[in-house]
Amino acid sequence: IGEDVKPFTPEKTKEIVMSLQQPAVFCNMVSDWPALRWNAEYLSAVLGGKRIQFRLGLRTMDLVPQFETRCSYVKATLEEFLAWSCGQPSCLSGPFSCYEHSRYWAYADYKYIAKIFEDKPEIFQDIRWSDFGFPGRSGKESTLWIGSEGANTPCHLDSYGCNLVLQVQGRKRWYLFPPGDTSFLYPTRIPYEESSVFSKVNVPNPDLKRFPEFKNATAHVVTLSPGQVPL
Length: 231
Hints:
By secondary structure, the chain is of the alpha+beta class.
């Protein structure tokens, strides 16, 4: 099959998305999407000096997840974030000055693309969820995550519809669980997060004394590369 031929039609893809009961990763479905050029440097140029909120967490491996309520927050430009994430000396002042790069990770998370690029609506068309069987869906209904090395989100289930994520730059390790494992993950709600159910378990470093049932869960661990879409 040529690189320009997608492995599934939009109709078949949606059928898979809506019926699959096991974790999966789609490959070769987005090779023609303009959004694949959205690396951090490109987005920094597009955004100019626009400030966005970053969540910061410690680079530690505790037995409990670092929930958002335990994190710090700063507002900064993407250019300032990139300089800090590279360890540049210029960051001794500015929004990240209190957070030593060797001790912290930072994450611009859950930003609605429609809000970030409200003055550049043409960029919404760079994302084509119609290829996955959702006609009319573009970047306008999507969210954007940008993180430094080590940035992470506690294991969770979003309780609305289905989630498709496009990896654009770098690599990210995902721990995916089938729906049948939910009870083994000790689900809980956290304040201010109405749309998600979180696991009490720090999945990469579980406390099996407190959460013994977690040993019955089967994590599908995948490291995503640019152009891949997990389900």
